[in-house]
Design a protein that fits this description.
By secondary structure, the protein is mostly helical. It has one domain. It is 47% helix and 8% strand. It has helices at 3-9, 11-20, 45-49, 65-73, 78-86, 90-101, 114-122, and strands spanning 37-41, 60-64. Strands 1-2 form a two-stranded antiparallel ribbon. It is elongated and about 65 Å long. The chain starts with a helix and ends in an 8-residue tail after the last helix.
Length: 130
């Protein structure tokens, strides 16, 4: 999977970007719930593969569903979308670059056998409130 796909489909990274912009659509400015916002990519996935993580910031916008649909329906020019991203205050641009550049810690699953733990829990003679 390309970097762009990982960036946009990673819910933790995507949610951090949405929070960084204040849970507001960057086009209309309306405040939305986290799940009602989309991290929109201005560039195509093939172009995103050529970019380093930190350099993706100018190619991402946080949009509400209405604005996201309108950008696609009216085929908004790439230059207009990039101009919106350039209008971000510099501290916000730095924060988004930091989020994009962060590398999650490696996860090591526990050594326990989950099936065995489940069976033990289900067959336990210990009962609450008895």
């Amino acid at each position: 999977m390309s970097f762009l796909g990982i960036t946009l489909k990673n819910p933790i990274r995507g949610n951090r970007i949405k929070r960084a912009v204040g849970l507001r659509c960057e086009v209309c400015g309306c405040e939305e719930y986290l799940e009602n916002l989309v991290v929109h990519s201005i560039i195509k996935e093939e172009e995103g593969c050529e970019q380093s993580p930190g350099s993706m910031e100018p190619f991402l916008l946080v949009l509400c569903f209405r604005c996201h649909n309108a950008i696609h329906a009216f085929d908004a020019p790439r230059s207009s979308q990039e101009e919106l991203a350039r209008q971000r205050p510099e501290p916000l641009r730095r924060e988004i670059r930091r989020i994009l550049s962060s590398v999650p810690r490696r996860y090591t699953p526990p050594d326990t056998d989950m099936e065995e733990a489940y069976i033990v829990a289900c067959t336990s003679h210990f009962r609450f409130g008895v």
